[in-house]
Automatic annotation (TrEMBL):
Belongs to the acetyltransferase family. ARD1 subfamily. Keywords: Acyltransferase, Cytoplasm, Nucleus, Transferase. Catalytic subunit of the NatB complex which catalyzes acetylation of the N-terminal methionine residues of peptides beginning with Met-Asp, Met-Glu, Met-Asn and Met-Gln. Proteins with cell cycle functions are overrepresented in the pool of NatB substrates. Required for maintaining the structure and function of actomyosin fibers and for proper cellular migration. This is N-alpha-acetyltransferase 20. Residues 2-152 form the N-acetyltransferase domain. GO terms for molecular function: protein N-terminal-methionine acetyltransferase activity. Its EC number is 2.3.1.254. Its main location: cytoplasm. InterPro entries: Acyl_CoA_acyltransferase, GNAT_dom, NatB_acetyltransferase_subunit. It comes from Musca domestica (House fly). The keyword Nucleus applies.
Length: 175
């Protein structure tokens, strides 16, 4: 049986089996600890009965007025535990926390080439809100999709009216 529990500082020394996946964005320790201190309720871990980390979700709440939203910073599941519904379980958890924080929507960024993740998010009710040109840098520059799902506070569903033109990273309002 899978247990969802808050991510702790000790977990930073145990989650390499999950983070070594090539599609997982890996950050420095200070980035993770910043999220743990500022948005601990948005940082959850899926753990197996033997105590192995199966996956985690890291997010935050941000924005102003009708742009107040939950944001998925990272979601990853260990290759050993994929196709069990853990990603959907973690996403539902973050959406519930975002509802409690009175957010209008939840958003996330995903590589355009990550068809499996895009399909999963679409099945969870997310739409491609816009394309962000060259969002991912490094060895393989790549565009991202900004995917969104309206929450109950957005009664008019304004947050998911898609852009028709791609945008550049520098044009984003990243508050």
């Amino acid at each position: 049986m899978t247990t969802l529990r808050p991510f702790t500082c000790d977990d930073l020394f145990k989650f390499n089996n999950v983070n070594f996946d090539p599609l997982t964005e890996t950050y420095g320790l200070s980035f993770y600890t910043q999220y743990l201190s500022r948005w601990p309720e948005f940082f959850q871990l899926a753990e197996s009965p033997s105590g192995q980390i199966m996956g985690y979700i890291m997010g935050k709440v941000e924005g102003h007025m009708e742009n107040w939203h939950g944001h998925v910073t990272a979601l990853t599941v260990s290759p050993d535990y994929r196709r069990l519904g853990l990603a959907a379980l973690l996403m539902n958890f973050l959406e519930d926390i975002s509802e409690k924080k009175r957010a209008y929507f939840v958003d996330l960024f995903v590589r355009k080439s990550n068809k499996i993740a895009i399909n999963m998010y679409s099945n969870l009710g997310y739409i491609v809100y816009r394309t962000i040109l060259d969002y991912y840098s490094g060895d393989q520059e790549e565009d991202a999709y900004d995917m969104r799902k309206a929450l109950s506070r957005d009664t008019e569903r304004k947050s998911i009216i898609p852009y028709t033109q791609p945008v550049r990273l520098e044009d984003l309002d990243m508050h």
